Amino acid sequence: MKTVKDIMSTDCITATTKDNIYELAVLMKQHDIGFIPIVEGKKLIGVVTDRDLVTRGYAEKHSGSTAVSEVLTNDIKTIASTTSVDEAARLMASNQIRRLPVVDNGTLIGVVAIGDLAVREIFVNEAGDALSGISEQEHREQASIH
């Protein structure tokens, strides 16, 4: 049985609460990513997504020097590296999330993304179901805005 450790990315770009939202935006652009774990040492304390930067940062008229803590999401789901890929796919689908920090003993050791499930052809149906569920939720959110 494959575990999250077998498919996760371990070369995570991270930031700290001492960074500002402009610095996170630059990191996202440089590395072509939309998700940055926020750590204290190696302990995960939250995440910031490109959407967080827009909706809680710039759209709220915060300047680039605004502290990361202003846009940080700290109520996040995490998963242990020993968790099965199947369980990770179920967790991602049921919570409609695309990226899941992998944490062992409070330490961030990687990130598993929905693409990791599909690209590696592991539990393709679960990855498809998870992506479908996330896309349906986003479509409902957009429909309610218009």
Q: What do you see in this structure?
A:
It is a single chain. This protein has 146 residues and is α+β, with helices and mostly antiparallel strands. The chain has a single domain (4-145), classed as Roll (CBS-domain). It has six helices and four strands; from the N terminus they run ααββααββαα. It has helices at 4-7, 21-31, 50-57, 85-95, 114-119, 124-145, and strands at 35-40, 43-49, 99-104, 107-113. Strands 1-2 form a two-stranded antiparallel sheet. It has a two-stranded antiparallel sheet with strand order 3-4. A hairpin with a 2-residue loop joins strand 1 (35-40) and strand 2. It starts with a helix and ends with a helix. 27% of the residues are buried.
Strand and helix map with partners:
Blueprint: H1 4-7, H2 21-31, E1 35-40, E2 43-49, H3 50-57, H4 85-95, E3 99-104, E4 107-113, H5 114-119, H6 124-145
Antiparallel strand pairs: 1-2, 3-4
Helix pairs in contact: 4-6
Domain CBS: 8-64, 72-131
InterPro entries: CBS_dom (IPR000644), CBS_dom_sf (IPR046342), Diverse_CBS-Domain (IPR051257)
Organism: Paenibacillus plantiphilus
